[in-house]
TrEMBL record:
Transmembrane segments: none
Keyword Signal: yes
Assigned protein family: Belongs to the phosphate/phosphite/phosphonate binding protein family.
Signal peptide: 1-24
InterPro entries tied to this protein: PhnD, TAT_signal
UniProt entry keywords in alphabetical sequence: Signal
Chain segments annotated as coiled-coil in the UniProt record: none
Gene Ontology biological process terms from the UniProt entry: transmembrane transport
Species this chain originates from: Phenylobacterium deserti
Record Pfam families: Phosphonate-bd
GO cellular component: ATP-binding cassette (ABC) transporter complex
Protein name: Phosphate/phosphite/phosphonate ABC transporter substrate-binding protein
Length: 340
């Protein structure tokens, strides 16, 4: 066969094969890029079903406004929420002050916003509740004769654990485990119902949780509220922070922040509707914040550590806690100076 003719046939065959491959590739469905998803963590101070019902409309509005699918994550406790962020199972969420501090320290988080109250009040209080009519006083509770069954919050709870330790037990050189017959750890809702039903003699709680229970308006919630009374209140605690992972996509951060800072703001009918949605989760419009929001809880933590170290004769621990308080005071002074 003529070599030139053979060469032409080979070239033609190769060209046809390449064309067929290209056409075949055009006919195949190409895989689509996965749609972005935001995993939003919510601290479960009530049961998950209640949280899902109350937060659903807000998360739906966030999804619509940002164009990003939003998946809620209801952790069974604060540690679960922190670990979920640490292992990047969640992207952002609503934390208490102490659990938010842990998320910043251990999960690569940073504070970016904070909650407010629907009525404009700023802050809440940790409380100790007893069954109404029991006659149980704070002095009797602190007699530490191991007669009473006591309920506390999660170990990472600001109002359920840290605040009562800082402001009530540690200054008196006492610990709940030494004072009471039993100490049970549960969420605020469970502690409210347990005290109201007489299962516990007393428990820690907070004014926000009591306000949420009052808003439920069910026969069981009203019965519980009628059966409890407050015998101790802490100093005011800052409202809760919102924390996101530092490495979250900046475009996602911008969309989320724009949504939060404008949601429920203004005099329009839509803003009024949004405020009604926020009222279901017992908050008002959100405000911008950063890690400086955690200064008060860091101060509470260091104060509790200082008192505990002093009571136990731990000189090194006392020095470390004292230095932490000095550092916090310096940061607060610098913050005050920069705002003037």
């Amino acid at each position: 066969m003529d070599c030139a003719l053979m060469s032409r046939r080979i070239v033609r065959a190769v060209g046809l094969a390449l064309a067929a491959a290209v056409l075949a590739g055009c006919g195949e469905a190409q895989p689509e890029a996965a749609a972005p998803v935001l995993h939003f963590s919510i601290v479960s101070t009530e049961n998950a079903q209640t949280q899902s019902q109350e937060w659903g409309p807000f998360l739906a509005d966030m999804e619509k406004a940002t164009g990003i699918r939003v998946e809620p994550f209801f952790g069974s406790n604060y540690t679960t929420a922190i670990e979920a962020m640490r292992f990047k199972q969640t992207d952002l969420g609503w934390f208490t002050n102490q659990s938010g501090l842990e998320a910043v320290r251990r999960a690569g988080g940073e504070v970016f916003a904070r909650t407010t109250k629907p009525d404009g009040a700023d802050g809440y209080q940790s409380v100790i509740i007893v069954r109404k009519g029991s006659g149980l006083t704070l002095d009797q509770l602190l007699s530490c004769d191991r007669r009473y069954d006591f309920g506390m919050g999660d170990a990472k709870s600001t109002s359920g654990t840290l605040a009562p330790l800082t402001y009530l037990f540690s200054p008196r050189g006492k610990t709940p485990t030494e004072c009471f017959a039993t100490v049970r750890s549960a969420n605020h809702e469970a502690n409210l119902y347990s005290v109201g039903a007489g299962v516990l003699d007393a428990a820690t709680n907070n004014t926000n949780s009591i306000r949420r229970l009052r808003a439920v308006g069910s026969p069981s919630s009203e019965r519980t509220l009628a059966n409890i009374e407050i015998i101790w209140r802490s100093p005011t605690i800052p409202e809760d922070p919102l924390v996101w992972r530092k490495d979250l996509d900046p475009k996602m951060k911008a969309k989320v922040l724009d949504f939060l800072l404008t949601y429920g703001v203004g005099d329009t009918p839509e803003a009024a509707r949004q405020r009604a949605v926020l009222a279901r989760i017992q908050v008002g419009p959100f405000r911008r914040a950063d890690d400086r929001h955690l200064l008060p809880v860091r101060e509470m933590e260091a104060t509790q550590q200082l008192i505990a170290a002093r009571n136990s004769g731990d000189a090194a621990g006392e020095a470390a806690a004292g230095q932490a308080l000095t550092d916090i005071a310096a940061q607060r002074a610098a913050l005050t100076a920069s705002s003037n």
